[in-house]
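FORM 7B: Structural annotation worksheet

SECTION A. Query
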Amino acid sequence: MNFEVGVEIDKYRIVRPLGRGGMGTVYEVEHIKLGVHYALKTFTLEDGNVELFRKRFLAEGKVLARLNHPNIARVFDLNYDEGTGVAYFVMDLVHYKDGESKTLADLEIGGADEDQLLQWFTQMASALDYIHGEGIIHRDIKLNNILLNDKGGVMLSDFGISRFVGDRIREEVEVTRTIVSMGTHQAAGNVIMGTNGYMGPEIRRGEDATAASDTYALGVTFFRLLTGIWYEPGTDALKLLEPFDSAWMEILPRMLEADPKKRPTNLTVLADKLKPSATTDSRRPWPLIGIGMAAAIAIVAGIWFMIHAPAEEGDSFYDHLYDIPSCFL
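SECTION B. Predicted structure
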């Protein structure tokens, strides 16, 4: 269900749509009495189990509203409209410097300054360590779910398919989920949750997501930001990191290990290896042989990814999303 500009939802007035996803739409809204602007994210359930969805949605909102971290978009209001069947969260409105709502997916991938990437990596490492400590696995770390704020920093958003693993949290909520079924796994009866391209090999095998799965997805994210291409296991793609600060070559291969048990889960410790002075003073030059090797790798990898790699989400991507209660998982 889409809402027109000017429509009132409870105590909020729609200002403009900001983006659309598999489970609903995000709008900029104005609090009718206070005049303050927020982001309002709607969730819709088109099929049955509405009462179950309502109860679990409200329970999930209470958990997310308790998260308190400078690099996580806050949830501080929620409701479920009985008449329309629309549930919504009200969150921080995160604007970029130009006043628009932007994510890392809106940037020219591969064109960011290393000093800027250092700041973003440090902030995301801190945010992930925080939610993992709270018993939450995000499960959908990607460019589209990292917002750019007006201070040049980033904020983690969209916990729509997060996994609650802490004993205290699991007692409070079992959440309605977004499910992505893929190829042979679907035929085998397994359900895969996440975004293709960012998921670790263990997720593709149908195993449960862990903190190490978020580590892998963050590794893919920053590999893309640095090199401009997707990371594919079993290739020589990691050699494309050679021109950059040597700490990236130390950090990202560990995050992208095929075996989740070999991946580091304390991301703040990894971020400490990246120092501002290192990113400006010790970048490796492009030797002539390095240019040839990197060019060859880039060409081969580029052809492969043009054929096989997933595109960023669009309408066709969301054709494969389904809303079902988590009790059936």
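SECTION C. Observations
The radius of gyration is 20 Å. Residues 168-190, 277-298, 303-308, 313-329 have pLDDT under 50 and may be disordered.

SECTION D. Sign-off
Analyst initials: ____
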